[in-house]
Prior knowledge:
By secondary structure, the chain is an alpha+beta fold. The protein has two domains: about 1-30, no CATH class; about 35-120, Muramoyl-pentapeptide Carboxypeptidase, domain 2. Helix content is about 35%, strand content about 30%. It has four helices and seven strands; from the N terminus they run αβββαββααββ. It has a four-stranded antiparallel β-sheet. Strand 2 and strand 3 form a beta hairpin. Zinc ion binds near residues 67, 69, 70, 79 and 109.
Amino acid sequence: MDEGEPLSEVVKALRHDAGRLFHGESRYLLIRPETLVALQKSLVERLGDGAAEHLDGRRFVVAIRHSPFADAHGPSPAPVCHVTRGVLERVAEAVFDGPARVTETACAATGAPLCRFEACA
Ligand SMILES: [Zn+2]
């Protein structure tokens, strides 16, 4: 989608195919703001239940049971909770006051009992 493209042209270029929405060859997902807020609340609730373990001044671990991303994704050979990992990475950057990296070291989608994220400064 071109930044200068008028919205009416964008709407004209949308096509619906087999229950999916496309603009050109790109697939789009329309999400209502209420859905994003519900997702955020869901994550906060799960983080509240999750075991946050402070390993030392440069690492912490967060475990989340019943990840909405793993639940929605279904079985996978690799971790799938990329949105949660990204959110936790921003949190880690704030906690460590600098660059940080978060790795999902276990994921319910791969058959693990919970999703586990390890943050490192
Ligand atoms: Zn996961």
